[in-house]
Amino acid sequence: MNKFGVHAFVWTKDWTKESCVRAITNTAEIGYDLIELSTLDPKSIDVDFTRRQLESAGIGCTASLGLEADEDISSNDREKERRGQAKLEQALAMARDLGATHVCGILESAFQKYTVPPTAEGVKRSVEILHGAAEIAAKSNITIGLEVVNRYESNVLNTASQAVEMCKRIGAPNVKVHLDVYHMNIEESDIQQAIIETGDYLGYFHTGDSHRGYMGSGSIDLAGVFRAVVKAGYQGPITFESFSSRVVGQPLEGILGIWRNLWEDSRDLAEHALMYTRAQLKAAQEAHKQAERSRLPWPK
Ligand code: MN
User: What is the distance in A from the centroid of ligand 1 to the CA of 212?
Assistant: First the structure.
C-alpha cells in the first residue's frame, strides 16, 4: 500500500517548535501518513521534540536534502567529497533518530545549476560514497532515494534511466530512484514509459504539477502518470511537493526560482492534493483491472 505524504515546505520554511507543531498537526488532521522534512539546515531541527510530535499525531516522516556546492560528492574534489559524505551521514543519523523510513533528494551531486557536465571520475566517486552511505542507512532500515531533477538543479541525474544506471552501479538494495513529476515533465521524452521502465528501482515519488501549484491545475497528464505508477507496481511513498512564494524564502526561492504566489492557503492546497492523489490512484488501479474484467466466456 502506498503511503501518502506532504512536504513540510507546504506549511513552513522554518522548523521552530510552533512551525513543527502546526505542520505535523495539519498533516495528520488531513489524513496524510507522513510528512517529508527538509534537513537542508540540520541545526534547525529539534529531533527529540519533532519525534514526540510525530508520535503523538500518529504519522511517520521521511527526510530530504540537497548537497551544497562545497559538499559536492560528484566534484572529484576530496575536500568537498569529505564534507558531502559527512552531510549524508549526518542526515542519516538524524533520519534514524526521527524514525524516518527514507532519505531522499539530490544526494548524488550538489543542488545547483552547473555550468559544465559531470565527469566520469566525479560520478564514480559519487557512486562509491553513496555505496558507503547505503551501508550506514541499511543498519536503520532506511531507503536512500536519488532524486532525478531537471538540468537547472543538477548535472548528474536528469532522467529516470540515468538514475536506474546509477543504482545498478551503486549495487545496494536500499538505494532506489526518486522520481518527481515536475522534473520529469521538463526532461523525459515519455513520462509514463520512464516510470514503467524504472519499475522495481522506483523507491520514492514526488507528485505536483507543471508549475508546482495545485495538482490538476497545470499541464501534466496526471491521470497517465498514476496509471504508470500502478503499472510499475509501485507501493512506496507518494509525497506532494508544492512551493509558493507565500511560504518559501531564501535560499530555496532563489535556487528553485519561486517567484510566483501559486496559492495562499496551505491547508486547502494539501487537502486538495490528498483527495486528488487518492482519486487518481484509485482510478488508475481500477483501470489496471479492466483487462481481467473484460474476458469473454470460454468453454471449459
Ligand atoms: Mn522533488
Answer: 10
Catalytic residue check, 241: yes
In a domain, 181, yes or no: yes
**Backbone angles phi and psi of 20, in degrees to 5:** -60, -50
Nearest CA to 67 among 50, 81, 53? 81
CA distance 72 to 126: 9
Structural contact between residues 103 and 137, judged by C-beta atoms closer than 8 angstroms: yes
Active-site pick, 36, 81, 108, 241: 241
pTM as predicted: 0.96
Q: Which CATH number characterizes residue 103's domain?
A: 3.20.20.150
Inside any domain, residue 299: no
Centroid of ligand 1 to alpha carbon of 180 (angstroms): 5
Range of the domain at 20: 4-293
Does residue 279 fall inside a structural domain? yes
Write down the catalytic residue from 36, 147, 153, 188.
147
Q: What letter represents residue 66's amino acid?
A: G
How many angstroms is it from 66 CA to the middle of ligand 1?
Answer: 10
300 alpha carbon – ligand 1 mean position (Å): 51
Structurally, how many domains does the chain consist of?
A: 1
Q: Which residue in the block uniquely carries the three cell numbers 515536475? A: 182
| Residue 273 placed within a domain | yes
SS3 87: helix
Q: Assess whether 55 carries a catalytic annotation.
A: no
What is the distance in A from the centroid of ligand 1 to the CA of 120?
25
- What separation in Å is there between the alpha carbon of 105 and the centre of ligand 1? 7
Averages of pLDDT over each 10 residues, the chain, 300 residues = 97 96 98 96 94 98 97 98 98 97 98 97 98 98 98 98 98 98 98 98 98 97 98 98 88 87 94 98 95 84
Spatial neighbors of 90 by CB under 8 A, at least 6 apart, are 39, 42
